[in-house]
Amino acid sequence: MYQYKSNSFFCFIFVLCNLCFYTFKTNAVELKKDSILLKYDLGQQGGWIPYQQSAQRGRLGIFQEITILIQEETDIEFEAVHFPPKRAEKALLDGLVDFDFVCLEWLKEGASGGFVYSNPIFNVSEYVVTLTKNASLVPERKAIYGKPVGTVAGYFYVDDNQFTRVDFLNEEVLLLGLKHERFTSIIIEKETAKYWSKLLDIDISYPAVHTHGSIIIRLRDDKRELLPIINQAIETIKVSGQLASLLKNQGVDAVIP
């Protein structure tokens, strides 16, 4: 009689444990199914190094590594998609992607309607770049006004109504255009210019700052409820030193505001 009761008790415990495990597993699956997914554009292969693509073989770009850090601090999952620069803005406006990484100083309209904007992540500087022998021809930004200037198709330039854009597919061919003196100057972010000029063996100078500002997340307004969560995660990875470590390991010397 005692043996029977003992066996019944252990059977009951076994069933109860399995029921608890099944309930936990089911809840976990439901939580996963209900997780928040945000899509963002990472451009095409070779685009905007080291931000969209890394300068280091086999490593993710800076933006993708930042989304991984944010994901670790939140219930938000991120998915990278790839559009050419000319289509990226339309994809954001049409809701094919939920956000992008941008610097407001690049945009003519600045902080426009239809979007909400995150806390600053890190600073970037965009320069008017020339061959070193031509640096004296651009003593200030306005020296490019009224002249042909090398640019990347689909990229934002806040004052591109003041000069003639000569668009190229990406930064690599843009630097090659400068090397072959298709124009006197180009506009390019400094870390990107450093990477391609070294790889292509081009002697360049940075005679004038074109824009300076902070990279932020520009989030579609229909996702605005996620902005406080994203901002909290941004501040967390700043304070913890994770963001600084990420940038340093990517070889980027950037100020974190």
Question: Could you characterize what this model shows?
Answer:
With 257 residues, this protein is an alpha/beta fold. The protein has one domain (38-257): D-Maltodextrin-Binding Protein, domain 2. The protein contains 7 helices and 9 strands; from the N terminus they run αβαβαβββββαβαβαα. The chain has helices spanning 2-33, 62-73, 85-93, 171-179, 190-200, 227-239, 242-249, and strands spanning 36-41, 76-81, 99-103, 115-117, 122-131, 148-152, 164-168, 185-189, 204-220. Strands 3, 4, 5, 8 and 9 form a 5-stranded antiparallel β-sheet that branches. The chain has a two-stranded parallel ribbon with strand order 1-2. β1 (36-41), α2 and β2 form a beta-alpha-beta unit. Residues 1-33 have low confidence and may be disordered.
Based on the model shown, name its key terms.
257 residues; alpha/beta; D-Maltodextrin-Binding Protein, domain 2; five-stranded antiparallel β-sheet; two-stranded parallel ribbon; 7 helices; disordered N terminus
